[in-house]
Amino acid sequence: MNGYIKLHRNLVNWTWYKDINVKTLFLHCLIKAAYSECNYKGVIIKRGQFMSTLEQLSEETGLSISQVRTAIKKLKQTNDLETISSNRSTLFCVVNYDTYQNVDKRETDEQEVEKEIPIEAREEIQKDNKQIANKKQIIIILKTPENQGKQVIEIDLENEMTQLDDKQMTNKSQTRKKYKEKEEFKNNKKTLSYSAYAKEEPHSCNYAPESFEMNCVNKIIATTQSLPYNNKKEKNLKEKQIECDIINQMQQIDKINKSDILTALEYALNDSFWRIHVKSAQTFRKHFVTIIHKAKVAHSKFSGKGGNNFNNITSRDYNYNELERALLG
To answer: Would you call 315 exposed, middle or buried from its count of C-beta atoms within 10 A (0-12, 13-18, 19+)?
Structure first.
């Protein structure tokens, strides 16, 4: 038994679709039914018919004889199946077989073309087709009123494959280009984000290595690099200059004096929590108010003054010059 059967999706709306035994038997009948008229042991079997017995159907489907008999009875009630019994076997006929297994016009045309071509011509075509790889030829069958037979069409397969490879390479190059542009856009956006908190453009001035701003930035970078599991690459000079801009903005725009910046920075870089989170001048500026408050409260407790009142703590009750020299080395 060769070939295949067609199964329409509309079968889910069939009366017996949820009846497992009936559905199993009916699908088996579609598979067993003859696709075209044939002769079986002297009996003409028409399209949609097949010869079998209850015992044979039971063995083939895994259903009991009683289940097969009941399923046949239900299929006959809905006019899905007809039977003609004889002494030895039964002729089963799938009603409206053409509805389930309609003939494709394209298949019929191909069969007619195949029949009309002489056997010698078909054998020659098959022989020629085996040499396609060497001759780089494709043999097709034409059916026209004027001519029937074969025609050889020359195709440069190597050229076709080369063009296909070039096209694929072009697509890959375009994909890589788009990815590169996307990454560059992300990097530019990340660089500009250093000054996003202040929402002002970075200053164009350069900061000397010994400047207050550069020393603050270097302290933050050194602490960050000393943290375990730090995977960030070292900042270049341009990135350091941008961070220095933020320290400068804290002085010029936020009106924070250097002493308070140093106090907050020393506390943040030595505190177990803030030294992990303050990894850039931008983060330091964003959380400065919280950090300076905690720094002054901690200093108040350490100096023995007591209390946590921020307003009662002066910002110059210790030697800031000495603190600056200690922090900046």
So the answer is: middle
